[in-house]
């Protein structure tokens, strides 16, 4: 037996050689600083169907007296953490499951036990079962975890996990909920890529009926980290077909794993109670010498060779996973730092709250200025995940779309003598007739053939009626885009609660006022066109003349084309005669002449006004009231002048946020300590390449 300071657990020391101790020290140090709560660390997990002999295997490997019954055994996960320390201690605690209510979590977290010897191990499970409520609430299984931490000067660095056996179907004592709970619990450990899966199958049951193999395949398809373990081979009749099938399985010829298979003999309860621990291995060795399993290689049978085999597998797994573990630590550190920065410093006092907002507003103002100017060098603008972050680009594109929409849909109707299928289009003659009707309604004291000067303005207002709706829609879209940008920026700079509070108590009222001001500016731009049309643009008269000249030219071309198509010669006198009806129209109605002139003047004025409107709306009704002053909406000066109640409403912290920050800081400290341990290990003198954290596994 081992000395007392080893707690009588000599078999555990056989899991590691002296060569492996340095690398395992690193994993132990990472676990000691609490890193296993944040990132997955290498561990051995023992899993199988119910009554497959899992706990017996785990006891044989570790030397720890796990409770075993022929019927229902493990009812919750048990993590055995082996840690080297100067002082010999066995500390026991319970980690509550995610499904526990807060009051139960607090009660279970208070569960603490300190064992003096390994003989106290058996009674420990009954106490834990009672604490989890398995004996009083009618529950068969628990999502809680019993954590047993062994410390001692000669203990290896390792975590062994005993899991409840997988249930095939519900029974009177095991509900459908129990089946699912056990499945979820086992799956949580199996999915850890750094776990070594010890898939235990019993020779007592047909291999096709043991669901642990299917579950192991789901999480380890190539079998890279799964070792199959066959138990109870002594229950097979010597020379039987069943024995032969399990020998084939043990040879890795049926269900194949990269790590292969191993066979161990479990001792029944009666023999176990009446024998010394050191005789267990001797009886097992004798069985494998005399049974049909003696055809197997010696290193694949017996618990002694299993310990040596697991030692090599564990070391190889750690060596392979350590570089990825370092990467995971760095990723987690980055994530926790971002979460910490978003929460900001602790701020229980009003001065701390205002100081926090001033600091936040400085970053907000800087990035907003860049966004308004179109300077996208800041990390906030990088990447295409959220193109809405590039405010200037989005708004300018919307301005161009607005101008395009005005040119396309800004007129109530369009003149096109060839396209008459849509109500949107009408011929020039029909447009003149409609203008004539309006002229007669608005007739004044003007001379015959001359339009009333006010008629041009009335025609223009009818023609440009869609402008107001199109401009309001454009302003609304820009305003919504700006709000989305502000939301993305604040979510980048701070946490959800502060972001929401800034909008609720500060930015939302300001942005509403900006929208009202933008609409007011638009109303001013539209109000101008309710008066008599006015322009100093010299292109107006050119546009007006060109329209009438174009109409005459088209009429002349039509007549000439008709004569030329009939292959008749045309003299100068004939051309002059053709032009007379175009240049002089004595038979036309004077009102039609005046209406045509008014329509041409309106079209000429519309082109000038449209170009001006598509410039004025973006500059005067959008940029000035909404975009330009965005950086000043939440700046240090604004925070300095902010009422104290508003500061408290925005930056004041709830108890939940305080707890969240403390948890983030604890996790970050643990991760940074883990990263430091890895760096220190990388700087040590190494015996070979296999010790290098960042080296590639060449084996």
Determine the strand fraction and express it as a percent band.
5-15%
- Note the total helix count: 23
CA-to-CA gap between the ends? 37 Å
Helix content: 40-55%
Shape: elongated
Class by SSE composition:
alpha/beta
Please tally the β strands and state the result: 11
Largest sheet: 9 strands, mixed
* Overall pLDDT score: 78
List the strand order in the largest sheet.
4-3-5-2-6-1-7-8-9
Radius of gyration: 43 Å
Low-confidence segments, given as residue ranges, are 1-10, 269-273, 687-699
Key structural traits:
alpha/beta, 9-stranded mixed beta sheet, disordered N terminus, 699 residues, disordered C terminus, 23 helices, single chain, 11 strands
Topology:
Layout (H helix, E strand, L loop, with lengths): L20 H12 L10 E6 L5 H9 L14 E8 L4 E7 L6 H8 L2 E4 L5 H11 L13 E8 L5 E5 L13 H15 L4 E8 L9 H8 L6 E6 L9 H10 L10 E3 L5 H5 L6 H11 L12 H41 L6 H24 L17 H19 L4 E2 L9 E2 L1 H14 L11 H11 L3 H27 L2 H32 L11 H27 L6 H12 L6 H38 L2 H4 L2 H5 L3 H8 L3 H29 L16
Parallel strand pairs: 1-6, 1-7, 2-5, 7-8, 8-9, 10-11
Antiparallel strand pairs: 2-6, 3-4, 3-5
